[in-house]
Structure formats: structure tokens, C-alpha cells
């Protein structure tokens, strides 16, 4: 089993990539706004025995370059495409969480060679999120301090280790990356692109998720990708990969064999 952390120079930035395990299809993990490859680690460790698992730190997050000026979703999608090309992945599945789910939709819409399936975990929908400017500015402000992040995640069922992981990864994000999602990404409408996705698509979402609820996702995606398959995890909130790792791993395995 390979176990490698490396930097790839893509689109003018250095991206940290964690590449573990063996076996096809390869799973390419894309994290949420504020996350990193480290926030995928528990899920990847469970799946690496059967599948090669690749996790990317988006520009501005984790160990990746912090000095970029462009954090648009289309740019993040191009970064992902560049990593896939450099690694030579030919039989892969995109697994995107929250913001990473919206980026995954853009990557899939480009119909890259070798993409077999799309697995979205509590994904941001392709539609623009109608969030008031004041609320979005409050999100950015909360990401500037430990106290602010604690206020956001206090109600989640997380271990102390995972709570500290989330706080640390958010606080070390670049200022531009912290602003980009609330100011641009979450209010961007990508329904036209997403409607062109041609691979089987699965959504895994927590039944107690108040950020992306099962009902809201059924409505948003039903208009764009009819026939999408849903798995709802009872009692789980928005940070499902860390809150309920075992349930998420089981849902991913089920999607792989659907």
C-alpha cells in the first residue's frame, strides 16, 4: 500500500496531495470550505485497503499555496483536473463534501476521461444559495478566530480530536480562501454546467444536517439531475465524514457497487 504526501505544481500553485492505498476505482476526495486532506483522513484510512485514495488540499487550505489571488470555483475545478492528469488517474470517482461537492460537479461537467461516478456528501447544490450579505460576512468573520469557529461547530457531535482538527484547519486558511466561498462560490449558479453531468451521481447526507438538508438537496438536484440516488444518515449533521465515519464509509461502499 502506498502512503505518500506530495506537492504538485498545478495552474501556478503548489497543491498538497495525499495519496494512499491501492485498487480501482481510485477515489479523489475534495474537502469543504475550511477543510483539508486531513479532514478526509479517517474515511480514507478505512477505504485505502481496497481503493487508491487521493485527497487534495485546495489552494489556500491545508498545506497548499496560500498566496494565490484566484479562488473561484472554476479555478478550483481546473486545479483538480490538473492533479488528476498529473497522477495519471484513468478509472476514478470524485467524492466531494459541501463546497468540495460543488467543485466536483464542475469537474464532472467537463467530462474528464476516466470519471466513472460522482459521490457528493452534504454537497452545496448547483443552484445559488440565497444567503443575505450580512450572514455571509458573518461567516467570514467567524473564520478569523478560535472563538468564532467554536461557535459554528459547538452543536456538532464531534470528538475532541476532530473538533481541534477542524478549528486548526480553518484558522490556517488563507484570507482569500476564507472570503471566496461566502462572497462568490456559494452564490454562484452552476446549474447549466451541472445539468451536463453524464455519470451516475450519489448524494450522502445527514438526516440532521441543517446546512444542506435532505429535502433541500432533493429539490435542488432533482431539477438538474433527475434520477440521482440518495442515502440519508439518521441523526448525522453536516460534518458527516468526521461525525459518522463508519456510516459514511458504508454509504460510499454501497455507491461503488450500485
Which properties best describe this structure?
Rossmann fold; alpha/beta; single chain; globular; 8-stranded mixed sheet; 11 helices; 258 residues; 39% helix
Classified in CATH, the superfamily is: Alpha/Beta hydrolase fold, catalytic domain
The sequence of SSEs as H and E is: EEEHEHEHEHHHHHEHEHH
**How would you write the strand order of the largest sheet?**
1-2-4-3-5-6-7-8
CATH level-two architecture: 3-Layer(aba) Sandwich
- Report the strand count: 8
Q: What is the CATH T-level topology?
A: Rossmann fold
Largest sheet: 8 strands, mixed
| CA(first)-CA(last) distance | 26 Å
What is the typical, i.e. mean, pLDDT?
A: 95
The portion of residues assigned to helices is 25-40%
Radius of gyration: 17 Å
- The proportion of residues in beta strands is 15-25%
CATH class: Alpha Beta
Note poorly predicted spans: none
Count of helix runs? 11
Structure overview:
This protein has 258 residues and is of the alpha/beta class. It has helices spanning 41-47, 73-87, 99-109, 133-142, 146-153, 160-171, 175-183, 191-194, 214-222, 240-243, 245-256, and strands spanning 3-10, 13-20, 26-30, 53-56, 92-97, 115-121, 201-206, 229-233. Helices cover 39% and strands 19% of the residues. It has an eight-stranded mixed β-sheet, sandwiched between helices.
Amino acid at each position: 500500500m502506498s502512503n505518500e504526501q506530495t506537492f504538485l505544481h498545478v495552474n501556478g500553485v503548489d497543491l498538497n496531495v495525499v495519496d494512499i492505498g491501492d485498487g480501482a476505482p481510485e477515489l479523489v476526495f475534495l474537502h469543504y470550505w475550511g477543510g483539508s486532506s486531513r479532514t478526509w483522513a479517517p474515511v480514507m484510512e478505512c477505504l485505502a485497503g481496497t481503493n487508491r485514495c487521493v485527497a487534495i488540499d485546495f489552494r489556500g487550505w491545508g498545506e497548499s499555496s496560500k498566496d494565490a489571488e484566484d479562488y473561484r470555483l472554476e479555478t478550483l475545478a481546473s486545479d483538480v483536473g490538473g492533479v488528476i492528469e498529473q497522477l495519471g488517474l484513468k478509472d476514478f470517482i470524485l467524492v466531494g463534501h459541501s463546497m468540495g461537492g460543488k467543485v466536483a460537479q464542475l469537474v464532472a461537467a467537463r467530462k474528464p476521461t476516466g470519471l466513472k461516478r460522482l459521490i457528493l456528501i452534504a454537497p452545496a447544490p448547483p443552484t445559488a444559495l440565497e444567503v443575505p450579505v450580512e450572514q455571509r460576512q458573518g461567516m467570514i468573520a467567524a473564520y478569523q478566530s478560535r472563538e468564532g469557529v467554536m461557535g459554528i461547530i459547538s452543536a456538532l457531535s464531534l470528538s475532541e480530536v476532530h473538533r481541534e482538527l477542524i478549528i486548526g484547519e480553518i484558522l490556517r486558511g488563507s484570507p482569500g480562501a476564507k472570503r471566496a466561498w461566502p462572497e462568490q462560490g456559494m452564490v454562484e449558479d452552476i446549474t447549466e454546467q451541472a445539468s451536463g453531468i453524464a455519470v451516475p451521481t450519489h448524494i450522502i447526507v445527514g438526516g440532521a444536517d441543517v446546512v444542506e438538508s435532505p429535502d433541500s438537496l432533493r429539490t435542488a438536484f432533482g431539477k438538474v439531475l433527475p434520477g440521482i440516488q440518495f442515502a440519508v444518515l439518521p441523526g448525522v449533521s453536516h460534518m458527516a465524514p468526521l461525525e459518522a465515519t463508519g456510516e459514511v464509509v458504508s454509504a460510499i461502499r454501497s455507491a461503488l457497487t450500485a
